[in-house]
Amino acid sequence: MNKLENKKLHLISFDVPFPANYGGVIDVFYKINSLHKIGVKVILHCFQYGREKSNELSEICDKVYYYERNKSLITHFSIKPYIVKSRAVKSLYENLNKDDYPILFEGIHTTAFIPHFPKKRVFIRAHNIEWEYYKNLHKSEKKIVKRMFFWIESRRLKIYEKKIYKGQKAFAISEADGAKLNLLGGNTTLLNPFHANTFFNTKVESSDFALYHGNLNINDNENAALFFIDLFKSIPNQLVIAGLNPSNKLKSKIAKISNIQLIESPHQDELKKLIANAKLNLFFSNHSSGVKLKLINALFNANHCLIGKEFVVNDDFKHVCTVVEQNEWKEKILKLFKTPFDKNSLEKRNRVLMKYLNDSNLNTLCEVIFN
After folding, report:
1. Contacts of 267 by beta carbon, 8 Å cutoff, 6+ apart
2. Quick check: 3 pLDDT over 90?
3. Can you give the residue range of the structural domain that contains 103?
């Protein structure tokens, strides 16, 4: 019998983790799914704001609790970060206090009650260095009220993270984040993100286009799309931009350029085909933040991956991607359109990706929590 079968774990998710259709909840959902497959009984606690209750979660969890965030005006005036204070719900504390099972807090958002459990085995899954993430949101936001909120939240998070991680067992999502958490006094283990991929790419053929994809409703992703639009004005090859909720500004710019195509809100299967068929998958950001799940998906399914230096949060990415400096994009794109993605490149990447499989991640997670 599996020695972990019937072990129980409280897992607190910042959002409802199904459907698994954006970065953070992808990691949460496939983590729960992996634990379920080896018999661990997950007691899931999740905050519901805009996403429906899920039958799929009930099938893979021992119990599922849903909570509403406290979004009252007074919550904004707490010394705690709003993303934490709004999830400090009394019924969550009461449910966690019913037994002595270990607790995994997904994201700093869910950690309000950690100080109330000094004798329990508690762990934080850090999805980002959140104060830096909110600082970058402040930089890229154009609306004054949101800019002010992101700035204030970043300051609160910086103070809060110094306190909450000190002496605390935590799972970092990248090597870069792990180093920062250790400086805060954390007892940190690297835990690569869980994801939907169960096997490696086996083909090297591709179509003759480059792909940029992401949630285009996010400022950083829209800025990246605009960067590539300007770049491909002077590149003869085809660029496909695919993603959710493109703005009218983005649509208008793309409509004027003959070699750029917009695919709006593609289905998951359609997006996966685009990733696999593109000659080049492009990744650009103005700031570094955790591990991008869209990069992990591309590495498992795509051909050439070109990444800005902000994506190099693990040393592995230097060896399986082409890292591009700011002034090199045009040169590297033109060169790689002419460079085959051969079997040697594929085999090298797949060897590196062995440590990013969910089974490997699961071993790391269970060794820390249950041993």
Report:
1. none
2. no
3. 8-191
